[in-house]
Amino acid sequence: MLKRIPSFFKNFYIVAGLIFLAWMLFLDSNDFVSRFKLASKLRSLENEKTYYEEKIKEVEHDREELFGDRQSLEKFAREKYLMKKDNEDVFVVVEE
Q: Which of 13, 47, 65, 68 is the most core-located residue (most Cβ within 10 A)?
């Protein structure tokens, strides 16, 4: 029976190393599948981070316009919220 087993499997260190490798690759809590899921989650969170950093820059720019002088405040209100004076008409042009 032992003659059919290849000689490298008779070595205890090789067998223990293969068992350890199989354990670490497939059965451990940090196996390849969970590593892949965590890496994809990290990429998506980094993409969200860049998106929100851009949004923060836009909001800071709008805030500077809003708290600037009276003329920039009026311009901001007209462009963003379509506000108008009592004697004016507003025409919204939508580009397609």
A: 65
**Which tokens in the block code for residue 73?**
């405040």
Asked if residue 93 is part of any domain, the answer here is no
Number of domains in the chain: 1
Q: Indicate left, alpha or beta for 78 from its phi (over 0: left) and psi (-120 to 50: alpha).
A: alpha
What is the C-alpha separation between 20 and 32, in angstroms, rounded? 14
Mean pLDDT of 52-78: 87
Give the domain range for residue 62: 31-85
What pLDDT is recorded for position 1? 59
What's the N-to-C CA distance of the chain in angstroms?
A: 79
In a domain, 3, yes or no: no
45 within a domain of the structure (yes/no): yes
